[in-house]
Structure formats: structure tokens, C-alpha cells
Amino acid sequence: MIREVLQNLLMGIRPLSRLALRFHRGMGEETGPAEDIFRRFTVSAPVAGKRVLEIGPGKGWALGKLALQAGVSGYTGADVAPYLGSEGALACHLFDGRRLPFPDASFDLVWSVAAFEHFRHPREMILEIQRVLCPGGILFCDVDLRDHYHLAQEALWLDCLRHPEWQWRLMTWYRSGYVNRLRLPDWEAMFHQAAFEAVSLKPYESALLGQVISFEAVMRRA
Ligand SMILES: C[S@@+](CC[C@H](N)C(=O)[O-])C[C@H]1O[C@@H](n2cnc3c(N)ncnc32)[C@H](O)[C@@H]1O
């Protein structure tokens, strides 16, 4: 635990965390998975002419490029880390993880892959997503509920739940692998409070652990 606390405190020092960003891998750069995600996100809601916001695109515009090819009217990213800037019609906005820098009802669709579990302020973020979506707008998200420090060992996928909240924060708050440890019922309650209605919700279970370890949600804003 001491090692994790030290790593976390070091990542709280801005120049060091900026340096560490360069070494993060597998953050939205691969086209193969993006094509599969794009198919899933577009099967129930065609994108042509739509304004799309991607929450937490990470290091790559793979989804954005597919969306532009499919004729979206705009594709914008919002991230708390400066992985991406602008590339042609694609622009990523850096923000504080609490208040999205867009006016109300700016988007028809919000997409997000493997970012919700990293939210430090999940309730505020869900309300913000609701605010920037237009009425009837759709949120698509893939959320990974596993312990990100033990992704290679299925038996440890829920290891993060062993710690009290204060200890977990002390170990991970500033690190990119921080996960907020919310479970599916917590997310469902937040969606409900923000007046989202479920279009579809697919939980995935670990057979070994007998627990939900990720989910895909399609939510409509009232
Ligand atoms: C594991 S990466 C996923 C990147 C990409 N979506 C992918 O699938 O490879 C998580 C991303 O979410 C971002 N993130 C964390 N908290 C966020 C927040 N509150 N709002 C937006 N992005 C956030 C991180 O900076 C990072 O880019």
C-alpha cells in the first residue's frame, strides 16, 4: 500500500503527471476495436447529420474519424487529460472533470468508452451529460467496472473493493488507473436521478467471480 500511496502522491505533481501521460498505451488509438464499438453505437441511432460528443477519447480519434465518414455534422471530444488537441474537423476540449465546457443542448449523441469508471465526480458528470444533450438525445457508454491495476488476473478484478474509500483515494486519486468503484446499481440510480431512461442496458458478468464486471448502456435524455 505504501508504494501505491507514493505513486499517487507523485502523480499529484503536475509536471510528473504530464510526463507520465506520454507513456500511457491503448487509449483509443486502435482502429479494430473502434470499428466494433462504432457498429454497436450506431445500430440503433444513425449518426448522419448528428452532433456527437465523445467523453474521454484518450489518445486517438478512431471513433471520430468513423463518425465523420458516416456524415456527422460535428464531432467533439472532452477529456480531463491533454492527450488530444485538434485535427481537422475534430477538436478535443480539456476540462476539469466537473463542468463540460459546452452550452445546454449542444449535442444529439454522447459517446463514451472506458471513461465513466475513471470519473472523479460521477454524479456531476452524469448531470452535465444530461445538460449538454438535447431533449431526446442519446448517451451510449461502455463502462468497465474492474480493478484496473489487476486487469490481467480475473480473480482480482474486484480487488479494488477491499479498501475503504479514504484509503483507495490515497492510493489512486491522481493516477490514470483510478476507478471510482461504482457498481451497476449505483450507475442506474444516477441515470435515473438525471432523468435518463434506459433504451438498453447490457451487463457482462465474470463467470469466475459471479459479478457484473462491465456494462453497455444506451440512455435517452427526457
Ligand atoms: C481508459 S481511457 C479510455 C480512452 C478511450 N476512450 C479508449 O477507449 O481507449 C479513459 C479516458 O477517460 C478520460 N477521463 C477520465 N475522467 C474523465 C472525465 N471526467 N471526463 C472526460 N474524460 C475523462 C481519461 O483522461 C482518458 O482519456
Domain module tally: 1
Quick one: how many beta strands? 8
Identify the CATH class.
Alpha Beta
Low-confidence stretches: none
- Describe the global form: globular
Helix content: 25-40%
What small-molecule ligands were found? S-adenosylmethionine
**Largest sheet geometry:** 8 strands, mixed
The name of the CATH topology is Rossmann fold
Q: SSE order, as H and E?
A: HHHEHEEEEHEHHEE
Number of helices: 7
**CATH superfamily name?**
Vaccinia Virus protein VP39
Within the largest sheet, what's the order of strands?
3-4-2-1-5-6-8-7
Beta-strand level of the residues, as a percent range?
25-35%
Level-2 CATH architecture: 3-Layer(aba) Sandwich
Global mean pLDDT: 94
Span of the ends, CA to CA: 44 Å
Structural class: alpha/beta
Quaternary arrangement of the chains shown? single chain
Q: How large, in whole angstroms, is the Cα Rg?
A: 17 Å
